[in-house]
Structure formats: structure tokens, C-alpha cells
Write a structure and sequence with these properties.
2 copies of one chain form a homodimer. By secondary structure, chain A is of the alpha/beta class. Chain A has 14 helices and 11 strands. The first copy, chain A, has a domain of 103 residues: D-Maltodextrin-Binding Protein, domain 2 (3-Layer(aba) Sandwich), CATH 3.40.190. In chain A, strands 3, 4, 5, 6, 9, 10 and 11 form a 7-stranded mixed β-sheet that branches. In chain A, strands 1-2 form a two-stranded antiparallel ribbon. A two-stranded parallel sheet of chain A has the order 7-8. In chain A, α1 crosses α3, α2 packs across α3 and α6 packs antiparallel against α14. Chains A, B: Keywords: DNA-binding, Transcription, Transcription regulation.
Chain lengths: 309, 309
């Protein structure tokens, strides 16, 4: 069987980013942490922790961390059923759940899910933020136990649940529209007006361009990796961008932002994929995610075309 | 002299993340882009582009990109003085400026600076977001031309300008306070109440703990890499965290958030460091950054203890 004392030290170093903080977290000396990590690495013949500031996990280290989380989750269920088994801990030992989520979900509906779940379970969340097309990769690599993703295809060893569609409007300030699109929104004007792109993984603008122009014109763009910054930059007239409906509904209503082409939206279907090992102990989290998504995303069964009308 | 046609191809691949998009951007075929990049790599004996989805720069590639930006900036000045020299371009060629900025500056005062600057200069921004203690590293590695950083020490080859202090309050919801700090805020209660930490590089909570308790207690924490998400999670009672004064002033005033220890703030001094090569052509940007910082940060010469009172 694995050496769980050593595994716990590895997980603590990776969670806190340093050997010193890990030592304080698990109530041993830093040299004990260092020794446990090193011995486990020697025994496994693999580096688990990339020493640095902060310390990070190797791919193998990530897998071990997820394993520790799942063991902790199962222990939690065991102690619920057999409280007498629970060790007299010095302070409550909380499970830390690693979840990958796309920035726009985090910026709109996802915290509602965590708030709901945290009312029933006393655990900590370690959120990894990435593009919705790349969160699944983190799940596949074992870096997280669950992910909000646009990947429809089930990941091996995971359950997949459809959540709904995150709606995006192509928006800009009225002033920006007057400066760049006075003659209309077409391939030519789009090729000159600065866009906003989240990062190199963000394909939303290209998807919208394809839908709006039938082509994929090269467009000049700012790069701005921040959900809120994206809305703010559009308000300030720095560029046009694809903004989540929930974040711009008010601005569209009061005219501070306008749609480049009214009604031309992009809907991104989102799925909750969760490791089967974690899926039973985390049934409550899945329920909370599903409920928050039902309120915050466009869902077919609403009949009214969804929250944003 | 360097082959600037090839350099432009490398910069386009790195800016757009793909050979196809680069081809559309610089109006040549994808195979021409691929050939130019490959030939330059062979001539320099170094990989410049990490092929992937998206394509990214190697360290050498980053330095070449900054060089291309600086040449473009200097060309801009030249064409301003001698318009006849300007090539008849098919569409305006905009300079893309790479800047590293900490998430909390981006979430508060920094976009005001870009808005001001963009009124006088038609350029694009490529923002890299990192912890204020790590943005300088990107400047040192040649990944960006300028950075908003907490690093006081001037970086080699750079100008450094003091901007002011970004003020942080330790905040939580009244409900969270009642649940976790009914008996007072001390090392014991802080050791049990879930905190919010941005990422492994974020030391603000530890700095506040040291100031508040005189020690560095190990604290349970959520990890939540989002400036706006941090405020939202505090409002939802998920944890306590260090929030920028500008983002929580309203919530503190209306009682939706309260300070853990009233008046116990952390001030982070921020500097603008800019490559000397870029500093003359970017004098206008520096001026805009300075002006926006003077409004958005605490500055000693305000006399009133700053904007947040």
C-alpha cells in the first residue's frame, strides 16, 4: 500500500506551494516534510514536486494529489457513517477539491454552485481557470477531480452531465461603433476595428466572425485575459468582444454597450465532467452545479428562450 | 542585419497562436509563414516557436518579438516625422505592445491608463496577467516591454517609476464573520476559518496575518484565481480574503462586507518598469499610466490618506 503519511506531505506542498507552509499545515517540521517527499520520490522513481517559488506538481505529482483527495473524500463518507473511527484531529481536516472551470463560468454562474454546496459540506476548493475547450485537458491529466467544459465527448473514467449554454453577445460601446462601424459591420470594417481576445486559446471571436461574415477575416486584436476586464474594455471603447450575456445584460439595456449585430449570439454548450471515483462522494456538488447552471445558463426546457430573453 | 520578413512571420505566429491566422494577418500563404519561421530558426540555431494549439514563443522567440515591437515603434516615430517614407500598407499596421500587469491593477485602475493612451495612439495591447511580485520576471525575460510590478529594484535596461500603493482590506460577509469569528479574530479562529487565496504566488493573506497576529499561522484556504471572483466569493460567504479597496468600498459602506479587523490594511507599492528601448516611443503610455495610477492608487502627496479615506 502507498505511504499515506508521505502522500499527505506531497499534497500539502503542492496545495500550499512551499515546504514551510506545508509543514505548518500538517503540523510537522519542514525537514520532516522534505524527507517524506524525497523518500516517496525515490521509492517511486519519479519527481513529484518541482521545487520553486511556488513549488508545483509534476504530472505524476498531480495524479497522486487527486488520489489523496479521493481517499480523503471516501474517509469523509466513512466517518459520517462511523463517527467513532474518526481520528481526534487537532482542528478539522478539510478536503480540498480541485476543479477546473472556464473563466466566464467563474465570472457568472459557478460561484453560486460552490456557495450552495458549501452550505452542506465543509470543504475547500482549488479552482484552476482555463478556456472552456481546455478545462477537460486538466481532468484528463489528473490535475482536477471535475471540470466545467465545452467538451461533449465523455472523458475516460468520468461522468458527463449537460449543463446548458453560456450565451455570448458581440458588444462594443456606442462611441466605438460610431468610430469603426459607421458604414456597417462587414468583413472589411471588422478587419480594421480592434477586437478583444481573451488569450490564444479563445476562439469565440472567430466563431462569431464565421457566423457573421461567412468567412474568417484576420482581425486586429488586443489580448486581455480577464472576464471582467473584457466587459470593462468594451465599455471604455478599447475594442469589441464576445461578452457573457449575464455580464452585459444591464449595459445593453441602458445603452452603454450595443450589439455589433443585434441578435447574433454565440451559444457555448457546457458540460460537467467528474471523475467516477469522486462522483459518488461528490453527488452533492454535482447537484449544486446542476442547479446553479439551470439558473445561470440558457436551457432548452425553459421554453422562453432563456433568462436573457 | 536580421531578416525582418522572417521576424515579422515569427511575431505574427506568436501573436495569433497559429500559422494559419498569422498568414491571414500578414497577407501571405501559411506555407510561406511556415518556411520563413523554419529558415530563421535554422539560421539562428534555436527554436523560436513551440508548435501547438496555440503556438507559443520560446524564450528566444519572446526576445525577438519584443525586438520586432521596438522596431515597429521606432518606425512609427520615423513615419510621423517623414510621412513619405511610410509604405503604402494594405490596411493600417498597428503595433502590438506586450505589457505585464497584476490582476488587481487590471481589475481596478489599469484599463483607465490604456483608454487614455489609446486616444492618442492607435496600437494594440497584449496583456499578460500575473502576480505583482512576478510581472517583473516577464520583463526580465523579455516577454513584455513594460510591467506594473511591486518590485522596487530597477530591472536592468529598464526605467522605473513609482506609481502609488494599491490598498487591500481583509474582508468577509457579516454571516461569515458570525460563523467563524464570533469569539474574535485571532490566530486560533484564523486557523479554522477558510481564507481565499488567489494562487500559489499570492502572499497577501500571509502578509496580513503577520501584521494582524504577529505570526504566520497555517490557514485553510480556497484557491480562486480571479479578482472579481474573489470579491464575489467573499460576498457569498465562502471565505475571507484580501480585496482591493476600490472593489469593496461600496460593499463595506453598505455592510455587505465587513473588515476582519477594521482599519488593518495592507498597502502594496506599485512601480511601472519599462524597457529603456521602448521608453522614448512609449512616453505617452507612461504618462497615461502615471495619470491613471494617481487617480486609482493611494499616493503620499494626497495628504488625506488617499481615495479610500
Amino acid at each position: 500500500m502507498l505511504d499515506y503519511q508521505a502522500l499527505k506531505a506531497v499534497a500539502a506542498v503542492i496545495r500550499t506551494g512551499s515546504f514551510d507552509k506545508a509543514a505548518r499545515l500538517i503540523h510537522v517540521t519542514p525537514s520532516a516534510v522534505s524527507q517524506r517527499v524525497k523518500q516517496l520520490e525515490e521509492r517511486m522513481g519519479a519527481v513529484l514536486v518541482v521545487r520553486g517559488s511556488p513549488c508545483t506538481a509534476t504530472e505524476t505529482g498531480d495524479w497522486l494529489c487527486r488520489h489523496v483527495e479521493q481517499v480523503e473524500l471516501m474517509e469523509g463518507q466513512l466517518f459520517d457513517a462511523w463517527p467513532a473511527l474518526s481520528p481526534a484531529a487537532d482542528g478539522p481536516e478539510r478536503v480540498t477539491l480541485s476543479i477546473a472551470v472556464n473563466a466566464d463560468s467563474l465570472g457568472t454562474w459557478f460561484l453560486e454552485a460552490l456557495q450552495r454546496f458549501s452550505k452542506t459540506a465543509d470543504c475547500l476548493f482549488d479552482l484552476a481557470v482555463d478556456d472552456q475547450e481546455h478545462t477537460a485537458e486538466r481532468l484528463r491529466r489528473g490535475q482536477v477531480a471535475a471540470a466545467v467544459t465545452s467538451l461533449e465527448q465523455p472523458i475516460q473514467g468520468c461522468r458527463r452531465i449537460y449543463l446548458g449554454r453560456l450565451r455570448y453577445h458581440a458588444t462594443a460601446s456606442p462611441d466605438f461603433m460610431a468610430r469603426h462601424f459607421a458604414g456597417g459591420v462587414d468583413a472589411h470594417s471588422l478587419g480594421l476595428a480592434p477586437a478583444l481576445t481573451f488569450d490564444r486559446k479563445d476562439r469565440l471571436q472567430q466563431m462569431w466572425l464565421a457566423a457573421a461574415t461567412g468567412g474568417e477575416p484576420a482581425i486586429p486584436t488586443h489580448w486581455l485575459p480577464s472576464t471582467q476586464g473584457f466587459v470593462e474594455a468594451a465599455l471604455r471603447g478599447l475594442g469589441w468582444g464576445m461578452n457573457p450575456a449575464a455580464l452585459v445584460a444591464g449595459h445593453l439595456a441602458d445603452g452603454r454597450l450595443v450589439e455589433l449585430i443585434p441578435g447574433k449570439v454565440i451559444d457555448v454548450p457546457l458540460y460537467w465532467q467528474i471523475s467516477r471515483l469522486a462522483s459518488a462522494p461528490l453527488a452533492g456538488l454535482t447537484e449544486a452545479v446542476r442547479a446553479a447552471a439551470a439558473e445561470g445558463l440558457e436551457t432548452e426546457d425553459r421554453g422562453q428562450g432563456g433568462r436573457q430573453g
